[in-house]
Design goal:
The chain has 214 residues and is α/β, with parallel strands linked by helices. It is built from 5 helices and 11 strands, in the order ββαβββαβααβαββββ.
Length: 214
């Protein structure tokens, strides 16, 4: 028996976005009275809400989101509690209990509790380049974080992004509910849209938790 846990933020007008990206617009497009059915037009960056970054985001000539292996988005994963660590990275290797090569790694920083505040963007702890290199060395298949960026706020050159994406490791940002996964066995499912040429895509990230038999 399995339990599903939603790890995704809703996409809606007025949602928090990095200033470099446009605000989300969900516009009524057809109406029952005129067309006999209802639909909406969505205007949003591919980096909206809970989304995955493809190598093309930072690697010239890298894979776009439509070219990534599906196997990378349906994986056994671990959630690592790094809350209270100002800049994640030091000692990360020692915190990866239960990790095996090829698994996904989700970083619980506790930053999801500040979603919607100015600090969510301006003080995001992120992941140091040293921590990113540890995950590359250990063979993580995908890396996620409960903040707006895998890089710390103010990091010059986006070194964590570059270290992971140049090694072909997709990065998921703006996850939530990771605290509930720490110390538990689960499978991560976070399939992106198949958008040709895109550097990212929103995902509906879900954890499939193993429940003990009684």
């Amino acid at each position: 028996m399995s339990k599903l846990l939603d790890l995704s933020r809703p996409i809606e007008p007025g949602m928090p976005m990095l200033p470099v990206y446009p605000s989300v617009q969900v516009v009524p497009w057809t109406m029952f009275e005129t067309h006999g059915f209802r639909s909406e037009a969505l205007f949003a960056s591919t980096h909206t809400g809970t989304h995955v970054n493809a190598p093309l985001h930072f690697v010239d000539g890298g894979a776009d989101v439509s070219s990534l292996r599906l196997e990378a988005f349906i994986v056994d994963a671990v959630a690592v509690d790094v809350s209270g660590v100002r800049v994640v990275g030091g000692g990360l290797r020692d915190r990866l209990e239960g990790f095996r090569r090829g698994m996904g790694v989700l970083l619980y920083t506790g930053w999801e509790d500040l979603y919607g505040s100015e600090r969510y963007f301006s003080e995001n702890p992120g992941l140091t380049v040293e921590g990113a290199r540890v995950l590359v060395e250990l063979g993580a298949s995908i890396v996620g974080i409960d903040g707006p960026s895998v890089d710390p706020a103010g990091a010059e050159g986006f070194p964590a992004h570059r270290a992971l994406l140049s090694s072909g490791i997709p990065v998921i940002e703006n996850l939530c509910n990771l605290k509930q996964l720490v110390g538990k066995k689960f499978k991560l499912i976070a399939l992106p849209l198949k958008i040709r040429g895109a550097t990212a895509s929103p995902v509906r990230a879900v954890a499939v938790l193993e429940e003990s038999k009684t």
